[in-house]
Amino acid sequence: MTGLGVIWRTSGLLMAIESRSIIEVLSPVSCRPMPGAPNWIRGLFVYRGTLIPLVDTARLLGAPPASDRRANRVIVVRIHAAGKPVDWPVGLWVESVLEIERIEFAAAGGHPGFATEAGRFLGPVARTRWGQVQLVTPDEIFTAEQAEIMTQRLSEAAA
Q1: Over pLDDT 90: what percentage of the chain?
Q2: How far apart are CA 37 and CA 49, in angstroms?
Q3: 2-158 has which CATH code?
Q4: Which end of the chain has the smaller Cβ count within 10 Å, N or C?
């Protein structure tokens, strides 16, 4: 990615998402816990009249759950399911949002990251004035099976 990214913090790490993937940034929201969901799903919350999942980014990264503070933000992103006609919004619970900045992930001195199944949503790392920032690809947060289930349910709800 070379372009505008929103830099945010979770579990002491600096992360970024391409600004074009973001729908909106919200103040903290309350959510309904979802028993049986992966432990990195905080629950469901109402976004513009629709219940959507709220992902605890700290747990997604394998850290303890993010604490509830005034600085927390919810970054609402649109997940694009490859080859599917339905996309859906998802909230990302983060410690704080720092700023929008042009980030050059392919610049000299960066790192491509490590490709693993558990970290499939993690991309390259770049140096910024805030420190080392890693790119998060929202479309890769859910496994193919999870994305298929969500796409199917959203398609049924829309019918």
Answers
A1: 43
A2: 21
A3: 2.40.50.180
A4: C
Q: Give the Å distances, CA to CA, from 74 to 64, 69, 77, 78, 152.
A: 18, 12, 9, 13, 25
Q: What is the DSSP track for the chain?
A: -EEEEEEEEETTEEEEEEGGGEEEEE-----B--TTS-TTEEEEEEETTEEEEEEEHHHHTTSSPPP--TT-EEEEEEEE-TT-S-EEEEEEEESEEEEEEEEETTSTT-B-----STTTTEEEEEEETTEEEEEE-GGGSS-HHHHHHHHHHHHHHH-
Sheet of 122-128, strand order: 96-104, 2-10, 13-18, 131-136, 122-128
pLDDT > 90? residue 75: yes
What pLDDT is attached to residue 141? 83
At 26, list the tokens.
Answer: 């919200």
The CB density around residue 40, as the number of other CB atoms within 10 Å, is 19
